[in-house]
Amino acid sequence: MEEQERERAEGERVYTIPLRAVKKAPRWKRSKRAIALIREFLIRHTKAEYLILDNALNEKIWERGSQKPPSRVRVRVTKEEDTVRAELVE
Predict the structure, then answer these.
(1) pLDDT tens profile 65-78
(2) How far is the CA of 20 from the CAs of 11, 26, 32, 70, 79, in angstroms?
């Protein structure tokens, strides 16, 4: 049982992703650009081929519309072979 928990802990990380670069996008494209930045960040840091973003994470980015995404977001990442699953940390 402890081995399984240790394996799960090793395959799980929490990242704080800065979304400052979103400010360089036009106002009406900022949330779309934020999703793209999250994808780029996670693929770069996890070296994954496939990335699955949680619905709650998407809703958090789009919560205030397309013009005002959050400036940073905390994400819990679980890696399983070549697939990475990202979910919002509350």
Answers:
(1) 999 999 999 999 99
(2) 27, 13, 14, 9, 26
Structural domain boundaries enclosing 52? 25-88
Whether 27 and 12 have beta carbons less than 8 Å apart is answered as: no
Q: Report if residue 45 sits inside a domain.
A: yes
CA distance 77 to 90: 13
Beta bridge partners of 50: 83
80 beta partners: 83
In a domain, 3, yes or no: no
pLDDT digits (tens, 9 = 90+) for 24-83: 999 999 999 999 999 999 999 999 999 999 999 999 999 999 999 999 999 999 998 889
Cα–Cα dist 35/72, whole Å: 12
